[in-house]
Specification:
The protein has two domains: about 270 residues, Aldehyde Dehydrogenase, Chain A, domain 1, CATH 3.40.605; about 200 residues, Aldehyde Dehydrogenase, Chain A, domain 2, CATH 3.40.309. The chain is built from 16 helices and 23 strands. The protein has a seven-stranded mixed β-sheet with strand order 15-16-17-14-13-19-20, sandwiched between helices. Helix 2 crosses helix 7 and helix 3 packs antiparallel against helix 7. By secondary structure, the protein is α/β, with parallel strands linked by helices. It is globular, with a radius of gyration of 25 Å.
């Protein structure tokens, strides 16, 4: 009998009361391994009510006491890291090493949140006017909701809720219905660490649950990570409902390769950043911009055999470099983009369509066809050359193991490609020239930039977010921006009676 994944509300697992369910696959086999409830409005109401009921006491808990619970939570996460990683891999499909790395990056945000007493310190000025002092501090918002994507079912939730609850909020997490189990296990560990019931809740669902959270009058803030069309919809709806909202959208990350770049280093960087996690990363490099035909030719010559030789396999294969895509439907979508690239005239140097884990090589006699009969949702690495900016494989976020190489005649043309794209999440430049690198970091209209670093994801004590249509809202995730997002600033101006009675002043107060 197929297992059913529970919600987690009020400090415990709660069985679904509705009758709508979705399938959770093992992407490496194509088999259904569990079913997940798709919450009704009533189930969302119950979860929000649990978070709302827990808020007053948790907000009144001293920040050092909250930090002590987070420290215990941190220790449990470190102890259970491999367990959580296996859960992530079994439902998402990414290799175990990749899953461990992603869980570790999430844990780093918990480490950051443990410093919340320092992070919540305000400002104070004595004597802003005669006998008057002014000071400020930050207070929690209330009930915060997080809506997270399938590609990082542990890391992205931990970008959100540790900072939110450290600041004194309660939290309702709606993870992706494609790989929901890690979120429930993490919430259990938080309660084991001493987090009061109702402070962190997990509700499963699809668009119906998302819409219910956005519209709910007792939800004060919404954090979202996903595709740009949905991010924009969530942002508009939540903002219209009067909520604070941050919505991180899609990406088309460029890596500019200058003629003086170390090509060995560059090829290694492109392999890991384009094909790691089967390209299902918002920070994946999906466009390599080669400055000059000589650089482009050398890149293709070096990349092609490496892409063909990718070891593809399920997470149980300890030597696998790239796993399957998350679902058969998503694999079909990515294959559709490869088909379109060929039709639009790009040169498909390496064709990963129909490639599976057999023989351990991309391009070997791997599993063919669609569906579970192919032994999982596998797609080999694909490499395009001579891609033009008007092609869909260049304009759209594919979210798969597809790398497009665009040829630029000059650095300025390469920079224009980066700046003219609608997405502005991440970009990188590989060069030995400090002046070129400095110019790129200054002029690129991008939120996160790497210099000889292909995936410039900031450390947890910095903040994560893009520009243009990669971010809707004013605040980035985690780091100082996360603290600002999950709190309100309050400023107090005070004077104590001194025995002197002032006459009424009908003008705006000033410091005379």
């Amino acid at each position: 009998m197929t297992a059913t994944i529970d919600h987690f509300v009020g400090g415990k697992r709660v069985a679904a009361s509705g009758n709508r369910f979705g399938d959770v696959f093992d992407p490496s086999t194509g088999a259904v391994q569990a079913r997940v409830p798709l919450a009704s409005d009533a189930e969302v109401d119950d979860a929000v009510a649990a978070a709302r009921a827990a808020f007053p006491a948790w907000a009144a808990t001293a920040p050092p006491a909250r930090a002590r619970i987070l420290f215990r939570f941190l220790m449990l996460l470190r102890d259970r890291l491999d367990e959580i990683a296996r859960t992530v891999s079994s439902e998402h499909g990414k290799t175990l090493d990749d899953a461990r790395g992603s869980v570790t990056r999430g844990i780093e945000v918990v480490e950051f949140a443990c410093g919340i007493p320092q992070l919540l310190k305000g400002e104070h000025n004595e004597g802003v006017a005669s006998g008057i002092d002014s000071y400020s501090f930050r207070q929690p918002l209330g009930v915060c909701a997080g809506i997270t994507p399938f590609n990082f079912p542990a890391m992205v939730p931990m970008w959100m809720f540790p900072v939110a609850i450290a600041c004194g909020n309660t939290f309702l997490l709606k993870p992706s219905e494609r790989d929901p189990s890690a979120a429930v296990r993490i919430a259990e560990l938080a309660v084991e660490a001493g987090l009061p019931a109702g402070v962190l809740n997990v509700i499963h669902g699809d668009r119906e649950a998302v819409d219910a959270l956005i519209a709910h009058p007792d939800v004060d803030a919404v954090s979202f990570v996903g595709s740009t069309p949905i991010a924009e919809r969530v942002y508009r709806a939540a903002a219209q409902a009067g909520k604070r909202v941050q919505a991180l959208g899609g990406a088309k990350n460029h890596l500019v390769v200058m003629p003086d770049a170390d090509l060995d280093q560059t090829v290694e960087a492109l392999m890991g950043s384009a094909y790691g996690s089967a390209g299902e990363r918002c920070m994946a490099v999906s466009v390599a911009v080669a400055v000059g035909d000589e650089v482009a030719d050398a890149l293709v010559e070096r990349l092609a055999p490496r892409v063909r030789g990718l070891r593809i396999g399920g997470y149980r294969d300890p030597d696998a470099e790239m796993g399957p895509l998350v679902t058969g439907a998503h694999r079909s979508r990515v294959q559709g983009y490869v088909d379109a690239g060929v039709e639009e005239g790009a040169a498909l140097v390496v064709d990963g369509r129909g490639v599976g884990p057999a023989d351990g090589a991309n391009g070997g006699a791997g599993a063919k066809g669609d569906g579970a009969d192919a032994g999982g949702f596998f797609l080999g690495g694909c490499l395009f050359d001579r891609v033009r900016p008007e092609m869909s494989i260049y304009t759209d976020e594919i979210f798969g193991p597809v790398l497009s190489l665009v040829r630029a005649k000059s650095y300025e043309e390469a920079l224009s490609l980066v700046n003219d794209h609608e997405y502005g999440n991440g970009a990188a430049i590989f060069t030995r020239d400090g002046d070129t690198a400095r110019d790129f970091t200054s002029r690129a209209k991008i939120g996160m930039i790497g210099v000889n670093v292909p995936i410039p994801v900031p450390a947890a004590f910095h903040s994560f977010g893009g520009w243009k249509r990669s971010l809707f809202g004013d605040h980035y995730m985690h780091g100082p921006e996360g603290v600002r997002f999950y709190t309100r600033l309050k400023t107090i101006t005070q004077r104590w009676p001194s025995g002197v009675r002032d006459r009424a002043d009908f003008s705006i107060p000033t410091h005379r």
